[in-house]
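Entry for NAP complex. Fields follow.
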Amino acid sequence: MTAPPKIYVAGHRGMVGSAIVRQLLAQGHPAECIVTRTHAELDLTDQAAVRAFFAAERPNQVYLAAAKVGGIHANNTYPAEFIYQNLMIEANIVDAAFRNSVQKLLFMGSSCIYPKLASQPMREDALLTGNLEPTNEPYAIAKIAGIKLCECYNRQYSESHGADYRCVMPTNLYGPGDNYHPENSHVIPALIRRFHEGKICSAPSVTIWGTGTPKREFLYVDDMAAACLHVMNLSKDTYQQHTHPTLSHINVGYGQDLTIRELAETIADVIGYSGKLVFDKSQPDGTPRKLMDSSRINALGWHATVHLTAGLKLAYEDFLRNDKA
Ligand SMILES: NC(=O)c1ccc[n+]([C@@H]2O[C@H](COP(=O)([O-])OP(=O)(O)OC[C@H]3O[C@@H](n4cnc5c(N)ncnc54)[C@H](OP(=O)(O)O)[C@@H]3O)[C@@H](O)[C@H]2O)c1
């Protein structure tokens, strides 16, 4: 029997990284073969420290789930930090992995790599076909650079060194480990907090930004983690047959979207909030629809399994466990 690979999960305390660790353990990967470092222990923007870490640990596989992540406000306020830190994290990890003979690496991107006006559902080949959403352009450019970094290392070093660096692009994620900050969180954790507080205070109504008509797609984070392991473990031949050397990333979505109104009604239901939902139409709606085309990963044998209502119940339990407010 071959020894299990030593796996480094970068960003293991984040929502996605922690789900990947859970998934590895659930699939029987021994805990002692999972390597992690907190941000305080290893700053991934520090090239020398990252090189020293890889040289000392010599992992066989890397899941790259560390990134500087934030909402519109943070992206708009700190564009330099978003582009610089994300470029550095990716470049340092990919290059140090290569220098230390890591053949398998999985990079996490985001649906914001696609043009603002990409046709829906968004296919992988929409990449670099139009202008990006200006508010998160620095972050998206860094993510696109991450995809191209992986592709270039594959193109130059696949034959000579066996480099096999893969990229997945998740849709909006939710679930355990989400950020429930009152002002700086994504729509699902923000609504969970507001409906929960509305229920506790018996508030007659809860206000939701926008008209409620935009459509969005959401994937439970453990489904995402399962997709990451699935893509990582595909044979090189299979991965190459379904991708192209210069268009190699794979979308990971739930496959269906719903309106923000439908989402809000479902969350209110899950939480048991019985007041009124008020839509504040003076607030911006954003793009009318954002749905991934996930046919590539579906053809590779992965499908989402956690229904939105079931996932929201688990997310609410996580919120109740962790809410310090
Ligand atoms: N959440 C979503 O809805 C979503 C959707 C699409 C794609 N993604 C992608 O999935 C990946 C992970 O996202 P997430 O939601 O899990 O984010 P997250 O919860 O914020 O986790 C990111 C992790 O990276 C760590 N990190 C950041 N900068 C670091 C540095 N310089 N050195 C070491 N560690 C650092 C963070 O540690 P500290 O907190 O200690 O800084 C944190 O543990 C990202 O690439 C993101 O683009 C997420």
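NOTE: The longest helix spans residues 137-161.
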